[in-house]
Amino acid sequence: MALIVKKFGGTSLATPALIIHSAKNAAKDIRKGHQVVIIVSAMGRTTNDLISKAEQISDSTKGREMDMLLTAGERTSMALFSMALNSMNIKAQSFTGSQVGIITSSDHTKARILKIKGERLLDALKEGVTPVVAGFQGVSEEKEVTTLGRGGSDTTASAVAAYLQANICEIYTDVEGVYAADPRIVTNARLIKSISYDEMLLMSYSGSKVMHPRSVEIARRFNIPISVRSSFSEGDGTMITNNKNIEENEVTGICSRDNLAMLNLKAPKGNVVELLRQMSENGTGIDFFINKGFDNISVIVEQEKLNNMLSMTENFCESISINNDIAVITIIGAGITEEKDILKKILTVIKKYDEDIFSLSTNKLSISIVTKKPYVQKIISEASKQFKLEQND
Ligand code: ADP
Ligand code: ASP
Ligand code: MG
Q1: Are 49 and 14 in contact (CB under 8 A)?
Q2: Does ligand 2 have an atom closer than 6 angstroms to the CB of 41?
Q3: Average pLDDT for consecutive 10-residue bins of the chain (393 residues)?
Q4: Could you identify the atom of ligand 1 that is nearest to the CA of residue 171?
Q5: pTM for the full model?
Q6: Which residues surround ligand 3, an ion (CB under 5 A)?
Q7: Does domain 3-241 have CATH number 2.40.110.10?
Q8: 122: CA distance to ligand 3 center in Å?
């Protein structure tokens, strides 16, 4: 008998019929005698719709009230999912994040899980009741409801799996698993059968939306195997574990992030250090850093943080210029820089866009390219061909 945490994403719960479909998946394992804990996202586009409503009413969509609003999405799903299981004669009970003691930091809309108290989860399991937990939410030490950032239900799932020392955490989504490139950009991207926590973590931080990065961090720390799979097919999906990628492809995947801006700063020597210190203290979040000397740097920041960042730089800099519409493309693979052909291939791909490549940097696991957003699609498509990231057939 195994203890399985199953998380269903928004598309897997978009309609009552799909909730029933997902509940049948859980019921199958429960009937086999496994203990199952369900984590749910909000139905379909509910979270986006709630955000859009808030934006029509207020400029301030980051605080307490926003979290009260957003948690309503997962609350709806958890009750409906529980009802679906009950109607299949399976005892189930829904719980909010707060009810199962998911204690978080107090940063509204981007809280981090600090600990799980979890008594009600354990009680339910002891009584043979399947807990259905609202993902993406928790409660701060000050007893305020919080959310974990977009896509945060994955993090609830791996945190609950870690707390319960589950045998596996299954993430059900609308694609077959983790692909070597975003399937919306490379339609025939190769499905990765197995990937290490480290590589997956890099993929998540580098823009692959399929798994929330914090979720992978937690699974790695507590050694919880994650299976990313489709709600709509029987495929084996992708296993994320400590094991090295057995497929021996020179490159594991390619990802990109956009909605970024590049701030080019010239400042008297010494000021840059002080500026960077203030930026990190204020949590402004520098994404990428191009150093052309200690008085001349470029930093990449999320577009939405640009104004905040600008107000900070004014006192420190002699000149500031901004490039909007920036993207960072990251090519990932263990030991990527040891294969001498890889860099050569990348240079062949980006040669055409030479003037708009702002930086090329490497480390043991990845190579990153800073460029303009309009080139992302072309560079990723061409690199996917070079690195055999497409399906063979
Ligand atoms: P869910 O609602 O199930 O959590 P998400 O929308 O958060 O689903 O994540 C799944 C989506 O991630 C897919 O539909 C796909 O478009 C996108 N995606 C981006 N990069 C990748 C990738 N490398 N592999 C798989 N999916 C990816
Ligand atoms: N419903 C939340 C979102 O859309 C959390 C999640 O789906 O994981 O971001
Ligand atoms: Mg998601």
Answers
A1: no
A2: yes
A3: 97 98 98 98 98 93 94 98 98 98 96 97 98 98 97 98 98 97 95 94 94 97 98 95 73 94 84 77 69 80 84 81 94 83 90 89 90 95 92 76
A4: 3
A5: 0.93
A6: 9, 151
A7: no
A8: 26
Q: Residue ranges of the domains in the chain?
A: 3-241, 253-386
CA distance 364 to 202: 12
Residues 107-141 as b or e (16 or more Cβ within 10 Å = b)? bbbbbbbeebebebbeebbeeebbbbbbbbbbbbe
CATH 3.40.50.720 fits 253-386, yes or no: no
